[in-house]
Amino acid sequence: MTVSYELTGRTNQKARTREALIAATRDLLAQGVVPTMEGAAATASVSRTTAYRYFRNLSALLAAAYPHVEQRSLLGPDPPVDPAARLAIVVEDHTRRILENEPEMRAVLRLSLQGVRPPGLPMHRGLRIAWIEDALAPLRGQMAEDELRRLIHGIGATLGIEAFVWLTDIAGLQREQAAAIIRANALGLLRAATADENRTANDGELGGSC
């Protein structure tokens, strides 16, 4: 069995070196720089060879530096029943994460556009879709499955760093304005979809009574 380099010998010092590399990566991201292994090593005052002893590649380093998210649900222990209230919790939490971790999210987006997709990062593990699915769970059985999937994916497309970058960089909005529009768009899609569903149901009832 192979023993991790960090678990042998001077473990406390190795833990500090690992944290220094992660902190250096976060510093570079905060400056708007997409890190390289060499750049992170230099910023942490260690050699490139040392950096590779802790992280096998840039993807692994970014996964360690990215804000850690493991929750499969953002709704808490006593979530509301109303889908709009549930979605509002998810949307608020997600836009807060964007505002707090924008440099890291932008860096991962840049890497994605270059075809580099670190699998350990939340945006590549489907967590955004899982959170929206969880919020809209009360709609299962009330909407056709294909319509619900379209709604989930539509909200997911409005909710991420991709939309935030367009609103700030292209549309020229302030960060808080962009976050407010993202929240409004996500909730607006839900309102429109449920209104359409109610109209369809009402039309069916009227048609059946004729």
Structural account:
This protein starts with 10 loop residues before the first helix and ends with a helix. The protein has 210 residues and is mostly helical. It has two domains: 5-65, Arc Repressor Mutant, subunit A (Orthogonal Bundle); 83-209, no CATH class. The protein has helices at residues 11-30, 37-43, 48-54, 58-65, 83-100, 102-113, 127-135, 145-159, 161-170, 175-209. 67% of the residues lie in helices and 0% in strands. The protein is built from ten helices and no strands. It is elongated, with a radius of gyration of 22 Å. Helix 9 (161-170) packs across helix 10 (175-209).
Topology:
Layout: H1 11-30, H2 37-43, H3 48-54, H4 58-65, H5 83-100, H6 102-113, H7 127-135, H8 145-159, H9 161-170, H10 175-209
Helix pairs in contact: 1-2, 1-4, 2-3, 5-7, 5-10, 7-8, 8-10, 9-10
Distance between the termini: 74 Å
Shape: elongated
- Helical fraction: 55-70%
What structural class do the secondary elements suggest?
mainly alpha
Succession of helices and strands: HHHHHHHHHH
Rg is 22 Å
Percentage of residues in strands: under 5%
Strand elements, count: 0
**What is the total domain count?**
2
Query: Treating each run of at least 4 consecutive H or I residues as one helix, how many helices?
Result: 10
Largest sheet, described in full? none
Mean pLDDT reading: 84
| Spans where pLDDT lies below 50 across 5 or more residues | none
Attribute tags:
210 residues, mainly alpha, Arc Repressor Mutant, subunit A, 2 domains, 10 helices, 67% helix, elongated
